[in-house]
């Protein structure tokens, strides 16, 4: 059984997305949880100056005390009839997830404006219900907390526009299913031995099985399962599909109705293992090359590189400590006029709340809603693959960050705790906060007499969710002028396809490119949906489109042109009803959320512009039209951004359990956009990040992050009277002096040589790099600056 | 006359684009040259290890010896009949510019492949011809160099598809014109006093005049000139338009045919000063508010800012010197497998040549061709404004960079020399080269057993051209995987408009937004054209479009779906003929330059993908259709990128003197794209960077660079067998250990706590930030790492 166990651990760890959700309700939690908490011995951050948030963090997930008390309450509830996970079978009710049910915005606004007290705390409880005939996953709301005489448990429905609080659980008895599959696989070892030269019971170089694509009906479940080579040394198993697939079908919870039905190899479907076995006996049965592991999947290559690799590279340092403040109790951060709260959710990871700049509200909430990866291909695995990663718990898989690599060594690292499957999981150092200096200035100008330059430093709040093969880095960046950026980067292993040499579509690179002996890349769209509840100087806002349009105009002063002038102009109009909107061709429109009732000193409506940021070009939406895999479960994926009216009943565009009910999702985003008026209303923008990812040889072994970024920015637009960064930036203004080296001339004339002298800088403490460099003087208390001495090259 | 002089210096320095070209041929050069060479006392770079380029830099501009010898030769030439600038009038022939005429690519390739010697050196000479009836600007080629018996002077025509080597000089006698205007302005002081409360002769707060928009016919010239408030303390004059304009018209060089004709104020055209004077006497003449200077135009604000402003921010250091090498003689740079040459041109600034990666050719030439700024507005100044900045010499205005602000203090700074107007100008420290560490990793992955992360360091080659009001930062960035990025950022002062309160278009924000009492922004398109002569693994290349398209397909394995599946696929086709191409909607196509005759180990054609990079969204092209201001002088501005066949007769898409002959330009790019076959040919891509710039209050006082970037990237696509960065990157791989702090649990169960230990790193020298942070051990020889100790917050 040792080899069985090994094999099954591999399955449970790798068939991530679909299986994770099952695991959460089963004792297999042990394997999932063994992913936990590294860097456990990291430093404690000393609180030198206590810093306190002005409000309570009403968005915070349940703390340990709340969870402990709640757990006791839950297990005493006859209504829920819960069994401890360690004693439970799939015929019991078990606790899947426990998290905060964030208060309604309406209530929070009353708290923030002082018209009401702190909103009640409620919990969101997810139960795997096994005692009923049809197994379900059921959502409850429970509150107020802490549990007391008034505390009640109610079906949680008001945030699901389906009107339901539950979905059918397509594979409730996962342990049984796993054991059943093991049994079946024993009977087909001869097939895998003949085609792949090994089987799932070999160790350490046997086979795994993985799946991601499921066809879920009412109580039925089907999936094509692919064999993979095991990888005993790293995580390269993702790159080792074997091109042999079988279909698994279950109807009801009764194993008598389960079957391993069809097989697929080399472009052909076989209706049973027996049929494939027969085919194998025929002469001329075509066997494909094997996709075997080797140094090509290694993420490290220690062979000698070009000169310079052996030297330490440049490194960012922070000589005087952070310039931001954190209230660690409330997860409240303040930097250069920005203020905001952080919360974490086990499904969706990090969100930011009540972002203010110089006291003005800008964004009430911004955070990930769902992460879709939609594949295409001509084989049964890639061809039906679509992941929605909140089901795999993107918060829980916000793994510990590595100081000096994921974020600067000097960053402040925050931890987050989650309550899942009856246990608490603390992800130490899973969020980093740091200030960084861009490689370029924020602004500059050289005039006749001066040169003036401002530094571009910015604040980053970052987390990385590793969802099986992929590592999603999600970050929020704050700039000195009031700009806020939301940025996504993807790395990790691609979910690759077996390369079938005889495939016609492989020959024309229809779904990707061959990248190793028997491996092909697999095209896929990443579409990650974010909510941005903008409150630009208040909650009454209007979304304005400003077109940059060609125009032909006759001007009274324009006599020299004999015909009307071809020029351009701005055409402004408010979007009056809820709508899905794409980024414009040729960047030919600005999208600005304006406050009609708040103007700057020059009479212009204060606004924040929403614009593609510093990712690779413009973020994209889903290429596929009316996806068969998704049905109605992710309607937000079809446009770049969406404008809807804020409602307490529509707090999120997506719901993890949608994955199980694609035809009738718990939250159907399509219904959010229903023609309501949105002028001078409380607006919510849902926008997508992501890209069309067509991996090529450069994605082996891992996708690179410098070319995988996508971003949306929120930039102040007529929000202030002038550039707000002037009040918080550092920089220098230098005067052209009249000393220094003479310029070299020719043609017999002399010109004045000039040199620079500093005429101003914001503070005496600022490291005087310039003086040091030009005049060989060191700024005081800046001994570290010695390290700036460049060496020859 | 002192105030006259003051006023005229302001004119010459500020009415930059149009006037600069005039100045280059006149004694006013003194004013232009007073912009020169600061930071003259910067360090010398010690050459520790001599490093030599494998070839001569055949693209290099003329060196001092060449220029000195050439100058002697030129002034002895009876054909050119040159007069020294100091003695010349506009009726003489004077030398405008002297630069290298770069060898034809055909000849360079023979040199690089060893089939021929170093190509001959030739010069490109531009002469302001004043002795003829119609004044002209004339291009000559002169070579071979150094001057000898075989050296000849020929009309330079072969690189101009007009077939001409000259343009009519619309304002040859600029000095006369300036004196004439001064005379005229004396006669209208009463008008400016009444409307603006001062005149051009007041000091220090009098008026300047500036212009940018010209209507140029055959020997005729007209422009609307606007009054500006002088700015005696900084460069804020750009923000001080006064809303009063007059039209200047010249026909022939005879002042008798010159006139100050119409006037414009408050939306009305007056046919003469007298007419405006009469109108002013009428009761009820509406006077606009004045646009006056004040602290609002200051680029520095030293008032107290938010907490933290007083602390030094994070700073990049380079503890062990640069990891790149430079051959300073040949301007040849080598970093991590990349090799390339640099050249500078006085008109176009920096270009890079023969960029190779691991020995393979990638880009033969990349560099700026032209920088267009096209405005729109309803007043006579903004309404006709279109600058093409190479006429103002973007190389010469590559000003000295400020260490620690424009580029890191540790950067290597290079200088460039130009030969203009008979003088040599050296721009010290006008190019910087440095490596930087991104704030994020290049790749990462967390698996069951390991976490592995690679550093993202990159090399930047940067220059800044300050063209009057605007500072254009142009840079070339090299990444460890072979990616090359071309990035533009704009900063400096906007060219703003006077805000006329009664203007209907101002009321509807038709061309911009009011941003101060009497100032409005002015919408404009920046379109900067770059040449990228790609030679992907050789010169025989094909441009392939790969569409990411929705598809409906029936798969044999897809029984569970009862209808054909809605999915997507790739559709690949080569572009067969020269074409202009836009970036696709929804990023729905990849553009890849492939080599049909070179495949990687997996049989895939090696290519480089051309893609929008990390600027703000996707770079844009000109919004205006068939621009009246541009006529045919900038046909490259109408599409995002262009694919043409390389020809020695088409080395550049643009020509500075096009500005003077918009209807019949010297180089008409429109003719480049003439239906030639481009499959398996030597291809050249011309692409545009830039943006639609609709400034708002946040652009006052200066445009910010973090939101003004645009970029195009060239990324390897199936170019190598796997990710090329693996051989040159640094990083760590860490193993999950089984010691460390226990995770905290709830629900009665325990999980294993884990901690990280480093199992590998590329070199012993690598700063072991991780160990330091997690285990409180310092890497050896890394005492500077002490500074990484974070302080509390």
List the helices and strands and how they pair.
Two copies of one chain form a homodimer.
Chain A: H1 2-14, H2 16-23, H3 29-33, H4 64-75, E1 94-101, H5 105-112, E2 121-129, E3 136-145, E4 152-155, E5 166-168, H6 174-186, H7 189-196, E6 207-210, E7 214-216, E8 220-229, E9 241-251, E10 259-265, E11 268-270, H8 273-281, E12 315-317, E13 325-327, E14 332-335, E15 338-345, E16 349-357, E17 360-375, E18 386-388, E19 412-420, E20 423-437, E21 443-446, E22 450-454, E23 457-467, E24 470-479, E25 484-492, E26 497-498, H9 504-507, E27 514-516, E28 519-520, E29 524-534, E30 542-553, E31 565-574, E32 579-581, E33 589-599, E34 605-612, E35 641-645, E36 683-693, E37 710-717, E38 731-736, E39 756-760, H10 769-775
Antiparallel strand pairs in A: 1-2, 1-19, 2-3, 3-4, 3-5, 6-8, 7-8, 8-9, 9-10, 10-11, 13-14, 14-15, 15-16, 16-17, 17-18, 17-29, 19-20, 20-23, 21-22, 22-38, 23-24, 24-25, 25-37, 26-28, 27-28, 29-36, 30-31, 30-33, 32-35, 33-34, 34-37, 35-36, 38-39
Helix pairs in contact in A: 1-2
User: Averaged pLDDT of chain A, please?
Assistant: 86
CATH class of the largest domain in chain A: Mainly Beta
Distance between the termini of chain A: 61 Å
In percent, how helical is the residue content of chain A?
A: 10-25%
> Would you count the extended β strands of chain A for me?
39
Q: Using the coordinates shown, work out and report the CATH topology of the largest domain in chain A.
A: Beta-galactosidase, Chain A, domain 5
Number of helices of chain A: 10
């Amino acid at each position: 059984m040792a080899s069985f166990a090994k094999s099954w651990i591999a399955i449970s760890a790798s068939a991530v997305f679909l299986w994770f959700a099952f695991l959460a309700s089963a004792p297999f939690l042990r394997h999932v949880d063994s992913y936990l908490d590294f860097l456990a011995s990291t430093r404690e951050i000393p609180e030198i100056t206590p810093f306190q948030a002005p409000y309570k963090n009403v968005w915070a997930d349940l703390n340990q005390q709340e969870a402990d008390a709640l757990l006791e309450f839950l297990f005493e509830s006859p209504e829920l009839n819960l069994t401890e996970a360690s004693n439970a079978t799939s015929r019991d009710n078990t606790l899947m997830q426990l998290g905060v049910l964030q208060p309604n915005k309406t209530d929070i606004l009353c708290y923030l404006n002082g018209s009401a007290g702190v909103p009640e705390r409620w919990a969101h409880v997810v139960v795997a219900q096994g005692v009923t005939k049809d197994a379900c996953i059921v959502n409850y709301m429970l509150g107020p907390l802490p549990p007391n005489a008034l505390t009640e448990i109610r079906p949680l429905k008001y945030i699901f526009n389906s009107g339901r609080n539950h979905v059918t659980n397509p594979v409730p008895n996962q342990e049984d299913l796993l054991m059943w599959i093991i049994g079946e696989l024993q009977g087909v070892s001869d097939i895998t031995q003949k085609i792949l030269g090994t089987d799932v019971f070999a160790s350490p170089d046997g086979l795994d099985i993985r799946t991601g694509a499921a066809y879920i009906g009412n109580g039925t479940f089907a999936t094509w399962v692919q064999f993979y080579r095991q990888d005993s040394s790293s995580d390269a198993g993702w790159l080792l599909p074997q091109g042999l697939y079988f279909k698994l079908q279950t109807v009801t919870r009764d194993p008598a109705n389960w079957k391993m039905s069809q097989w697929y190899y080399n472009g052909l479907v076989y209706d049973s293992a027996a049929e494939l076995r027969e085919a194998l006996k025929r002469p001329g049965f075509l066997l494909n090359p094997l996709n075997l592991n080797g140094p090509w999947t290694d993420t490290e290559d220690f062979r000698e590189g070009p000169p310079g690799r052996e030297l330490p590279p440049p490194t960012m340092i922070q000589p005087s400590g952070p310039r931001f403040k954190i209230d660690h109790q409330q997860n409240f951060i303040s930097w250069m006029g920005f203020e905001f709260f952080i919360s974490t959710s086990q499904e969706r990871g990090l969100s930011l709340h009540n972002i203010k700049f110089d006291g003005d509200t800008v964004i009430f909430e911004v955070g990930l809603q769902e992460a879709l990866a939609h594949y295409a291909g001509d084989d049964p695995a890639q061809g039906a693959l679509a992941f929605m990663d909140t089901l795999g718990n993107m918060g829980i898989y916000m793994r510990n960050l590595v100081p000096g690599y994921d974020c600067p060594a000097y960053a402040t690292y925050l931890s987050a705790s989650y309550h899942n499957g009856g246990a608490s999981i603390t992800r130490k150092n899973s969020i980093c906060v740091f200030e960084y200096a861009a490689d370029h200035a924020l602004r500059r100008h050289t005039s006749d007499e001066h040169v003036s330059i401002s530094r571009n430093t910015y604040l980053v709040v970052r987390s990385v969710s590793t969802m099986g093969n992929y590592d999603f880095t999600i970050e929020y960046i704050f700039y000195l002028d009031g700009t806020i950026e939301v940025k996504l980067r993807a790395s990790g292993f691609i979910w690759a396809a077996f390369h079938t040499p005889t495939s016609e579509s492989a020959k024309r690179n229809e779904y990707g490119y061959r990248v190793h002996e028997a491996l092909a890349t697999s095209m896929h769209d990443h579409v990650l949906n974010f909510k941005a509840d903008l409150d630009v100087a208040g909650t009454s806002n209007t979304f304005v489109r400003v077109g940059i349009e060609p125009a032909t105009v006759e001007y009274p002063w324009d006599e020299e042109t004999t015909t009307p002038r071809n020029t351009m102009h701005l055409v402004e109009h408010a979007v009056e009803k809820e709508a899905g909107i794409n980024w414009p061709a040729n960047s030919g429109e600005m999208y600005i959320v304006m406050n009609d009732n708040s103007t700057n000193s020059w009479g212009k409506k204060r606004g924040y512009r929403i614009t593609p940021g510093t990712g690779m070009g413009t973020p994209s939406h889903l290429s596929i039209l009316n996806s068969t895999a998704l049905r109605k479960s992710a309607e937000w994926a079809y446009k770049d951004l969406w404008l809807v009216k804020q409602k307490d009943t529509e707090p999120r565009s997506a719901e993890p359990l949608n994955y199980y009910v694609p035809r009738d999702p718990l939250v159907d985003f399509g219904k959010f956009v229903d023609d309501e008026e949105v002028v001078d209303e409380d607006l919510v923008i849902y926008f997508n990040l992501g890209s069309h990812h067509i991996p090529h040889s450069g994605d082996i072994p891992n996708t690179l992050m410098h070319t995988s970024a996508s971003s949306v920015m929120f930039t102040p637009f007529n929000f202030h009277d002038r550039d707000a960064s002037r009040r918080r930036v550092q920089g220098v203004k230098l005067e052209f002096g009249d000393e220094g080296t003479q310029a070299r001339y020719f043609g017999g004339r002399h010109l004045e040589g000039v040199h620079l002298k500093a005429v101003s800088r914001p503070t005496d403490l600022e490291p005087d790099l310039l003086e040091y460099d030009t005049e060989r003087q060191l700024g005081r208390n800046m001994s570290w600056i010695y390290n700036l001495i460049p060496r020859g090259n």
